[in-house]
Every structure is written in C-alpha cells, then in structure tokens.
Amino acid sequence: MTGQVVRLSGVRARGHHGVFEHERRDGQDFVVDLVAHLPVGAGAGDDIGATLHYGQAAEVLVATVEGEPVDLLETLAERLLDAVQALPGGDRCPRLEVTVHKPQAPITVPFADVSVTAVRERELPAVVALGANLGDPAGTLASAVAALAALPGVRLTGLSPLVETDPVGGVEQPVYLNAVALVRTTRGAADLLAALHGIEAAHGRTREVRWGARTLDLDLVQYGDPRAGTEVHAEGELLLPHPRAAERAFVLAPWAMADPAARLAGQAVADLAARADDAGGVRPGPPWPALHLGGER
C-alpha cells in the first residue's frame, strides 16, 4: 500500500469508562493516538477536502472519550474508529488505527501504561478485466490471476470463464482470450491500477500501438460497488468506471458471467453486453489452465 500517513498523538480527554464504580463516578484521563493512512493522491491538489482534517479528528476523539461511558477499552477504541471514519475523508482512508491509553488504570502493581489498539481496513470490491492474444494467452492469463491474488491487500473473490473474442480497433492481429476477475481490496484505486501495470510489465507488456496485440492487458474497470453506494468515480487523474467499459462486450460478457447481478452506469452489465457492438465477436473460450493461487488472501 502506498500513500501518505497522518499521525495524531497524545490527544488527552477525561472520560468515565471502566468496570469499577469509582471509574464511572470520578473519571480519569485517557490518551488517544490516531494513525490514518490516506488515499493515494490525497495531497496532490492541495485540497483539504481530499484528505482527513486532523483538527476535526482531534475534536471527535475528545468528544467520544468524553461521551457515553463504556466498560472496556476495546469498546471505546471501536467507537473512536467509528467517529473518525464518519468524518469527511475518514471513509476514504484505506486504513485507520486508534490506540487508547489508560495511564491511571486501577492496576495494583507498578506499570507504565495500558493501551488497546484497534485497526480498521477499508475493503472495497473491484473489477479487473484481463486480455491477451500473444504467446500462450491462456497460460499468461492464469499467471496474471495468480499474481493478482498474491498482491498484498487484495482478495480474489470471483473469476469468469475464459472467452474468445475478435479484436476491436481495426488493427490486424490474432483473436483474444479475455476474462474478468472480481477482487476485494484495501488498496486505493490508483494504487491498485499501478500494481496491475506492474503485473503487465512482469509478463512482458509494452505500450506501443493503441488497440494493438499484447501479451497481457489488465484494466481496472470498476472500483467500489454502485449497489452499495461505495463506487469511486475519480481518484487523482484516474476516472472510474473505465470510460469505455460499457461499450465492450469482451469486458461485459465475462463480467456478467462472474457476477450476474453486476451493474454499470445504472444498467445491468448483462444487458449492456447483449447490446454492445462487438457482442457477436464473443465466444466460449478454452478451460482455464491450472490456477496456482497459493498467494490468495
């Protein structure tokens, strides 16, 4: 995971948390540390709206500690995460960590500190389109799927059958094999796309001729889920969903096979696939070669 990190340390507030009566009655000081991993590109536009406002974060941490008492530090830590995640920008942080210190805890032996750390990672679905028409396309796609599943912060959750498709764009070249992989990821969209480009490069991909033949093509088609209201439409200069995805049967058809309920631009992906200009050029492909997904997480 790449990107910037905001660290807010030593936020002190008085609360009435604990299991003992005197803790609820008298209260004590709590100290909170926050680590917020920001989305890639959060600082690119010098816009505070694109990042997490640490002043607001400090205020909600104090308000939560001073709020409704709970018995456990673990519960308080989760409430603090809820409060930060509810802030503008908080819901876009791929990872949040809160540590709650209780320096005056009722412990009968000398101690320096007692604390609980809670971590929350934001995992969103993403759709990755795969294609190849040079060398051993089926083997290359199987290797690419394994590399995708092995990426840190990525879980492979679905995979379409292989389909054979006619080339589009007018460049003379062999037929393609295409597929779609469904993943869930804690990586930001731009970070995930950069990782996909790394997989392409590892398989000998070069970008020379538009619409030309290629050993491997990986596209980030959709990030987030429009059905759940989590779809991301832009991250830095990256525009999502993929601008031409709704026109490409070689993407839409395998996507609908992997997720029959998928939607894109407010329409069912299966319907878009049936209406696409290149729908007649999509055929069943060969079976997948053996997939070695030992790195899947």
Using brief descriptors, characterize the structure shown.
297 residues; alpha+beta; GTP Cyclohydrolase I, domain 2; Alpha-Beta Plaits; 2 domains; six-stranded antiparallel beta sheet; four-stranded antiparallel beta sheet; 7 helices; 14 strands; 25% helix; elongated; Dihydroneopterin_aldolase; Hppk_sf; GTP-CH-I_C/QueF
Supply the CATH superfamily name of the largest domain: 7,8-Dihydro-6-hydroxymethylpterin-pyrophosphokinase HPPK
What's the β-strand tally? 14
CATH topology value of the largest domain: Alpha-Beta Plaits
Gyration radius over CA: 24 Å
Question: What is the total domain count?
Answer: 2
Task: Please report the number of helical segments.
Answer: 7
Q: What is the helical fraction, as a range of percent?
A: 25-40%
The overall pLDDT average reads 90
| Unreliable residue runs | none
Distance between the termini: 15 Å
Overall geometry: elongated
For the sheet with most strands, the description reads: 6 strands, antiparallel
Structural class: alpha+beta
Summarize the helices and strands and which ones pair or pack:
Layout (H helix, E strand, L loop, with lengths): L4 E11 L5 H6 L1 E10 L16 H12 L7 H13 L9 E7 L13 E7 L2 E9 L4 H13 L4 E6 L3 E3 L10 E10 L3 H14 L14 E7 L10 E2 L2 E2 L9 H10 L4 E2 L2 E2 H7 L6 E3 L13
Antiparallel strand pairs: 1-2, 2-3, 3-4, 5-8, 5-9, 6-8, 7-8, 7-14, 10-11, 12-13
Organism: Kytococcus schroeteri
InterPro entries: Dihydroneopterin_aldolase (IPR006156), FolB_dom (IPR006157), GTP-CH-I_C/QueF (IPR043133), Hppk (IPR000550), Hppk_sf (IPR035907)
Protein name: Bifunctional folate synthesis protein
